Amino acid sequence: MDNNLEEVKAILKKYGQEHLLNHYDKLDDAHKKKLLEQIDEIDFELANSLYESTKKETKNSKDEITPIDYLDKFKLGDKYKYYEDIGKRAIKEGKLAAVTMAGGQGTRLGHNGPKGTYDIGLDSHKSLFELLCDGLKEESKKYGVTIPWFIMTSKENNEATVNFFKEHKYFGYEKDKNLFFFIQGELPMMDTEGKILIGEDGLIKLAADGHGGIYESLVKTGMTKKMREMGVEWVFIGGVDNCLAKMVDPVLMGVAIDKKVTVACKSVVKANPHERVGVFCRRNGKPNVIEYTEITDEMAEATDKDGELLYGESHILCNLFSVNAVERMGAEPLPYHVAYKKATYMDKDGNLVVPDSPNAYKFEAFLFDAFGEVDDMAILRVKREEEFAPVKNADSAGVDCPSTARELYKKFYKLD
Question: Which domains, ranges and CATH numbers included, belong to the chain?
């Protein structure tokens, strides 16, 4: 360990991060080993470039934003069955897998544990994980195959998530046969001086690298390799907090296969022109998602000849990718976005600092930033009340919360 320690000191000195060992001597052997491992895993060149990015002023974008075409699932006419038949055939052949992004905690919901273990208040008291699993099992039965389920956890909640599944007998799935867990990447949090933060446990304060890290995580953990071995060609990626997510959709698959695109996404029409959601568009001719903060009022309210919003297709994090596309997107990290957050940390003197305002930078990649890497994609508009019931906020918010999700779920499944 002494040799390793000297090597670590040299690296830290090179990058001006010597403070990371300030409390090393006070740690027990297990924590000492863990800290050295953490430091060894940090890409300090990347960390430096991320910090430098926080100093750059956001320039007015000169990107050309234009509307993007979409299909309305319920206005396809004869094409509906055509696409559905193509998708059904592929699903029966075992070409589809599902990925659920479940790295978050239920803190905002007042829940102590992984968000996927949260009970939204149904009479059955089923967790978000079980509700999603029910849908997968129902579709698997319909098509005579078991849809492989890959669950992305975080280092923070992986153990608790796996234990939760174990306690519930994996909800009928078989671990390591058709149920797989993998951990998303993390990046160190930094203060406004570019110093990496140390948490109250004496270890480096890390934060998940955003849902855009999904591609790299799937590749690095060997999940895409496993998919290929299983004969999987398509993967649906969605979030754990949408209890109505329809992960097995033959129409969506049929559209992707027929249009010969490598990405197909679901959208719901905006509730109103100024709903605070990202919407599908073309950026400089390439498929993309534009944040509501980037849309002018004029763009938000613009309509086509039929009165439909030109920028009205909300991105609901329900996306289908070919395994080829995932591997291509996972070959290189996506650009990172900076978030200014509150972070409790230990200062150089060993004092715990609990801020009352943002004090640290967190870096995240966004899944849709990879859309610009493809020449084209298909967008399928679906009904909000049938496929989008997110649980993001506490009930006090009154929107995208347990009570709204519960009502949508009960109405869709006709539960009294």
Answer: 1-41 (no CATH), 42-412 (3.90.550.10)
